Amino acid sequence: RTIGDRIGEGKASGNLGNTFKMLGQFDEAVVCCQRHLDISQEQGDKVGEARALYNIGNVYHAKGKHLSWNLDQDPGHMSQEVKETLQKASEYYERNLSLVKELGDRAAQGRAYGNLGNTQYLLGNFSEAAAFHKERLAIAKEFGDQAAERRAYSNLGNAYIFLGRLDISAEYYKKTLQLSRQLKDQAVEAQACYSLGNTYTLLQDYEKAIEYHLKHLEIAQDLGDR
C-alpha cells in the first residue's frame, strides 16, 4: 500500500484470505479474497481475478464442509445454511471455470471441474457431480497427473453409488485401487478396498466383498491404523 503496488496488495489480501480459511475464520477469509478480486478486476489482471474467484470458492467450500461435518449428514440432506454456502462455492467455481477457459489454462480448468464435482456431490446433485468428475478425469489424463486421475475415479465411484449404478461404481473403484497400487499409496489402497467391499455387499456378491474387506483389514494392520 505504501508504495502504491495495487497488484501486490491484491495478492497479499488473497494470501491473508487463504490463511484465514486455514484458521477456520471463513467470514474474514471472504473479505480478504473479495478484496483480491476487486483489485484484480480494477487492474484488469485476469490471472489474479481467476485466482481470487477460485479462492473464494474454496472458502465457501471449506465453510460448507465444516458446517456439515458438525451435523454429520449424508450428501444432499443438509440445512439451508449449508446448502446456500455450497451453492455459493459452486457459483464462484463456475465463474473461475469460465475465466480460465478464456485464458486457456487447462490445469486450472481441471481443478475447477474437480471442485465443482465435489460441491455438487455434497449438494446431492449426483449426475452433475459425475459429469464434472469425468471432465476432471479427462484433464488429469491429458497431463499424466495420476494422483488427480485416482481422485477422479474415486469420486466417480462415490457419485455412481448414489445414482444406484453399483456395477459402474465397482469399475471406478477398481481403477482407483489399481492406481493407488501404482502410486504406492497404501492408505488410499485400503480405502479403495473398503469401498469395493461395501459395493459388493450391496451387489450381494459376498465372496468378493469378504475378499476386499480382508485386504482392507490387512493393510490397516500393516499401517498400524487402529
Automatic annotation (TrEMBL):
TPR repeat residue numbers: 150-183, 190-223
Location of this chain's protein in the cell: Cell membrane; Cytoplasm
Keywords linked to the UniProt accession: Cell membrane, Cytoplasm, Membrane, Phosphoprotein, Repeat, TPR repeat
Keyword match Phosphoprotein: yes
InterPro entries found in the cross-reference section: GPSM (IPR052386), TPR-like_helical_dom_sf (IPR011990), TPR_rpt (IPR019734)
Database matches in Gene3D superfamilies: Tetratricopeptide repeat domain
GO molecular function: G-protein alpha-subunit binding; GDP-dissociation inhibitor activity
Single biological process term from Gene Ontology: establishment of mitotic spindle orientation
GO CC terms: cell cortex; plasma membrane
Family: Belongs to the GPSM family.
PANTHER family recorded: G-PROTEIN-SIGNALING MODULATOR 1, LD33695P
UniProt protein name: GPSM1 protein
The organism of origin for this protein: Crotophaga sulcirostris (Groove-billed ani)
Source taxonomy: Eukaryota, Metazoa, Chordata, Craniata, Vertebrata
